[in-house]
Amino acid sequence: MEIKYDLAKTELELTQGQMDKYDDFSDKVKTWAITLWAALLGWTFQSQRKEVLLLAFFIIVFFWVFDAINKNFRQNYKARRDEIAKALEIVFRTEQWPADFVCPALPPHKDIRVLRQIFRIHIAILYLPLAIIALILFVMM
Predict the structure, then answer these.
(1) Boundaries of every domain in the chain
(2) pTM (2 decimals)?
(3) What is the pLDDT of residues 43-72, one digit of tens each?
(4) Contacts 24+ apart (CB under 8 A), 19-27
(5) Rounded (10°) CA dihedral 129, 133, 30, 32
């Protein structure tokens, strides 16, 4: 039982570390998206060329999809972390491991569900307004 506990504890730390890594990466993606979008917006007004706004729009869409892929990977680790936490909760209550708990079982990254992630509010709330602003400015210029 002690070995299984140590493995579960190590896997819990590893999955949380992976989630933290993906959160940090997501912050960097958002920072780059906003920086490039703002720079392209400034370039548009300086050069008086509205075509640059299309580039700003496509940059936002690119980073939006990239962030959604990143969140998908993070969700895989979150699901596994939650499984481990539930198993540990059962162990602390009953002093026995759940029969179906296998350790370690790190998540594979086979299934990428970008469309499921892309319109989640915590992802879309940044990118959607920036994309809409770029399109509105493009039409107005």
Answers:
(1) 2-140
(2) 0.80
(3) 999 999 999 999 999 999 999 999 998 888
(4) 19/74, 19/77, 19/78, 19/81, 22/70, 22/71, 22/73, 22/74, 22/77, 23/74, 25/70, 26/67, 26/70, 26/71, 26/74
(5) 180
